[in-house]
Design brief:
The protein has 5 helices and 5 strands. The protein folds into 2 domains: 34 residues; 96 residues, no CATH class. The protein starts with 13 loop residues before the first helix and ends with a strand. It is α+β, with helices and mostly antiparallel strands.
Amino acid sequence: MIKWLDKKGQSLSINTIIILILAIAVMVFLIAGFAIGWGKISQYLSGKNVQEVVDGCSISCSSGSGSYEFCFGKKTLSSDDGKFKDVTCYFLASEPTMKKYGVAECSTVSCDVAFTQAECTTGKFLHEFNVASKTLVQSPTACE
């Protein structure tokens, strides 16, 4: 028998393979952090987007064409209190329980929105907050 065919190859240990996989994962994370930006990466790690929503609402208020976005634009707010779905900047700025998130009221925008049936007058749109599902439900038609 030929002597060099009888040699066994050296195999990698499981520990070495695991360390290589972890090193590659860390490198991908670092490259993504520097390429995309750490602010965008951190929101996926923490799951909170309060500052992004506050900044978006501020931009909607300051832009001349932002009244629709401020009053009716649906957003999802993730915070320590949970995830609030389909909320609007106007809701976050005017509802007393939501003011703690820091969305400022917008004096340049007038929203024809009511949050209770009692406030619902002709021309306003009814937006009711469902506490159980943490969702703001917007009526598709104006109050009569």
